[in-house]
Description:
The complex is a heterodimer.
Chain A: E1 4-7, E2 10-14, E3 19-25, E4 30-38, E5 45-50, E6 56-59, E7 62-67, E8 72-77, E9 86-94, E10 101-102, E11 106-111
Parallel strand pairs in A: 2-11
Antiparallel strand pairs in A: 1-3, 3-8, 4-5, 4-9, 6-7, 7-8, 9-10, 9-11
Chain B: E1 4-7, E2 10-13, E3 19-25, E4 31-38, E5 42-49, E6 56-57, E7 64-67, E8 73-78, E9 87-94, E10 106-107, E11 111-115
Parallel strand pairs in B: 2-11
Antiparallel strand pairs in B: 1-3, 3-8, 4-5, 4-9, 5-6, 7-8, 9-10, 9-11
Amino acid sequence: QQQVKQSPQSLIVQKGGISIINCAYENTAFDYFPWYQQFPGKGPALLIAIRPDVSEKKEGRFTISFNKSAKQFSLHIMDSQPGDSATYFCAAAIQGAQKLVFGQGTRLTINP
Amino acid sequence: NAGVTQTPKFRVLKTGQSMTLLCAQDMNHEYMYWYRQDPGMGLRLIHYSVGEGTTAKGEVPDGYNVSRLKKQNFLLGLESAAPSQTSVYFCASSYSPPSGIYDEQFFGPGTRLTVL
C-alpha cells in the first residue's frame, strides 16, 4: 500500500527529444507527488511537485501529468538536454504524514 | 548558509565495527531524515525526527540507531556494521512534513560507506 513503482530503471534519449518517466501507486490516500533530481555525487533536489486537484503542472521544460483514476503520474522533459542527465525519483506522501515514499529511481542519459 | 552537511563523506569499516554519521542543518528545520540509497532500490527511509528529542522508525530501521539531542543535528549510528549496510547514506531536512506548505526536503551531499 505504501509502494510507488517507477519505470523505466534507465532511459537514453537523444538531445532535443522528450524524456518520459512513469510512476504508479496503489494507496489512494496519497495526495502529494514530488519529483526529485539527483546529479552524480550529489544529494537529490526537488524538481517539481503536483497535488491531485490538477491533472498537469508545467515548469519550464518539465511537466508532471497526473491521472488520478489510473493512479499514475509521469514526468515529461521536453527538448531534453545533456545537462538533464541525472537520476530522477518520483515520490508520494499522504496528507499529514511525516514521510515521503520514493520510487526506485530512473537513470536518464541524454546523448548529444 | 551551508544548508545540510554530512560528516564524513567516505568511510570504510570492517564487519562488527561501529560508527556514527553526523548530519547538521542551519535552516532551523523541524523535520530531519536519514535515507539509504542502493542501486535499483531508490531512497529508503531509515529513521526520521519531527523535532528535537524525537525519533521514529522508517522503512528499514534494523541495525541503526539515531539521536536528535539538538534541533540542528541528527546522528545515525551503526553499532555493529554488516556488509549489507554498504550504501550511500543521505540526510535530509524540511520545515514542514511532506504535503505541507513548505514541503521541500533539502538533502545533504551523502556519505559513502563500505563495510568489508
